[in-house]
Each structure stands twice: as structure tokens, then as C-alpha cells.
Amino acid sequence: MVGKVVIVTGGNSGIGLETAKNLADRGAKVIIACRSAIRGAAAKEEIIKATGNPNVNYELLDLASLQSVREFCATIMKKEERLDVLINNAGAGGLGNSTTKDGLHKGMQVNYFGSFLLTYLLLPLLKSSAPSRIINVSSVMHHYGAMDFDNLNMEKYWSDYLVYANSKLYLNLMTLELSRRLNNNEVTANAVHPGVAATNIFRNIRISFIRNIVMKCVNFLFQDSWEASQTSVYLAVSPEVAGKSGLYFSNCKVKKPSELSQDLNLAKKLWIESEKLVNLS
Ligand SMILES: NC(=O)c1ccc[n+]([C@@H]2O[C@H](COP(=O)([O-])OP(=O)(O)OC[C@H]3O[C@@H](n4cnc5c(N)ncnc54)[C@H](O)[C@@H]3O)[C@@H](O)[C@H]2O)c1
Q1: Membrane-crossing residues (predicted)?
Q2: C-alpha–C-alpha distance, residues 76 and 8, integer Å
Q3: Which structural domain range is residue 174 located in?
Q4: CA of 91 to the centre of ligand 1 (A)
């Protein structure tokens, strides 16, 4: 990865931190996209110390603000000459039923609309750096998502569960549409289920007693963040996946996503509606 530039959103915590560390260890220039300067600086220091690669930086990004997404992308376009790998890893659960100042449902914006705009704005740099790769960190939870264009932004009905499942389904559809639009496969786009790992993703479980039990059970039954980062790393570095696009991976293997995730018409329509909702058209 020496000479390559990688962005990992949410690279300061959990699976993203392990992904960023692994790619820095392989010599990449790693940019962590993160909401807090304090957490960004701490992650930068941890990664440099662990890998000896000084080429690690952070830039501020709050996916719950489209202005922040635009500012982040403008900074990257100004500072970086290339972008080889974009990993849309940041995500959150249990954000409740609030609306951002962009008029979008907060959970949907953090998990999908923000990453949609970010990817859209960075496409010129990804294209000029081709062959390059986009990796969208989805979840097995996408299987429980539903596609209702009258409720794209959760304006009619919602639950934390549905927001998470739908946002991951939308990420899969964005992956499919990206691969269709970038059809020469010079820029590839793939989705990942990282597997279940006890990370801060569970921090919004409001009752601390239940949160602690869930974390302990997940820790006991499943994997750690390092293991959960392996499929993202595989998609970022492996020659085996060069030119492969529009696929869904887990455990470093292609897996079949839900039927809805494979519907090209839904993917096209969602892209057009997303452009409108993030004020691109
Ligand atoms: N941990 C699991 O069991 C699991 C399972 C399936 C999918 N995932 C997915 O893996 C990805 C990484 O999650 P994790 O488990 O490492 O959790 P985590 O909470 O440790 O990491 C999530 C990252 O996203 C960032 N983030 C949250 N809101 C943001 C915002 N508004 N703007 C910018 N960044 C923001 C956080 O700061 C953090 O760095 C997420 O997309 C998550 O949905 C996790």
C-alpha cells in the first residue's frame, strides 16, 4: 500500500480504527475522518506508535451535517493529489427520531445520506486515481430493511431498528448503483458485513445494565474489532478483488445479499432520490 492514499471514516474507533491501523502498517497514507479533533489526534498517535508509519492524519467530518461533508471533501480535494481507497465505515445505531439541520432523519444521514454525498463528491479524485476502490461498511441487518420511497427519510414511520436496517440496505443499493455507473471497473465499489463485534456501536443502548450485558455476550460469542476489520482490509488491498464490483462480502468471501439489495431498478431510483435529498440536483 506504499504510495496509496486511504480514507477511513470513523477511523478513530472500533472496526475503523483497526482497519486504519492495518492499512498504515502496510505503508498506506491513512486519513481518519472523525468528528472530534481530540479523538482524531489520539487515534493518529495510537496508529503511528503501533505501526511506525508517520503518514497518518485526521480530518474533521460530521456525517450528520452536509456542510461538514462538503468541507471535508473540499479539504481532501485541495490537500490530496490522489485517493486510492475510500472506506465508508462510520455508522451509528440508536440515534432516536431527531432531524438534522439538513432536514434529514439523523440516523439515516449518519449511516447513509452523509456517506452518499461524501462518495459523490470524492468520485472525481477516485476516478483520476484509478484503479481505486470504494468500500461501504454495511451489515447483515440490511436483510431486515424495507424499501418504501414514500418513507425514504423516515418521515412517515420509524424505529431505531428500521433506521439501522434501512440505512444498510440503502448502502448496499448505493454500492450496486456505483458499480453500474463506474462500469469500466476502474473504480470498484463493494459492500461489507464486518461481522458482529463488541464496539462503541452499542453505546446508545440507553440502560447501562442491559448495555453491559449485551457487550459481554457479544464479546464472548463473537469476534473482536481486529477480526471484524479483516474483510474491509481484504477489499482494500487484495489483488484477488481487483476489478470486482457491486458485490457484498463477509469473512473475505462474496456472500449473497438480500433480494432487495440486488434490484437494479431500486438502486437507480434510490440514487436519484438521494441526489435530491442531499441537494445535489
Ligand atoms: N460492531 C458490530 O457488531 C457491527 C456489525 C455490523 C456492522 N457494523 C458496522 O461497522 C461500522 C463500524 O462500527 P463499529 O462497530 O466499529 O462501531 P464504533 O462505534 O466503534 O465506530 C463507529 C465510528 O463511526 C463514527 N461516527 C458515528 N457517527 C458519526 C458522525 N455523525 N460523523 C462521523 N463519524 C461518525 C464514530 O465516531 C466511530 O468512529 C459501522 O458502519 C457499523 O454499522 C458493526
Answers
A1: none
A2: 13
A3: 5-277
A4: 4
Domain tally for the chain?
A: 1
Residue 39 sits in a domain of what CATH number? Answer: 3.40.50.720
**Alpha-carbon dihedral sign for residues 200, 205, 207, 209:** negative
CB atoms within 10 A of CB 270: 22
pLDDT level of residue 87 (50, 70, 90 thresholds) = very high
Query: pLDDT tens for residues 226-249?
Result: 999 999 999 999 999 999 999 999
H helices of the chain, where? 14-25, 37-51, 66-79, 106-108, 114-128, 160-181, 208-221, 225-228, 230-237, 264-277
**CB distance 175 to 154 below 8 Å:** no
- Cβ atoms 203, 170 nearer than 8 A: no
For residue 90 and ligand 1, the question of a CB distance below 6 A is answered with: yes
- Cβ of 246 closer than 6 Å to ligand 1, yes or no, is no
Closest C-alpha to ligand 1, atom 17: 201
What is the pLDDT at residue 199? 80
Note the pTM of the prediction, 2 decimals: 0.96
- Position 249 scores a pLDDT of 98
Q: Going by CA atoms, what residue is nearest to atom 4 of ligand 1?
A: 196
Q: Are the beta carbons of 145 and 94 closer than 8 angstroms? A: no
115 grid coordinates: 456517506
| pLDDT score of 211 more than 90 | no
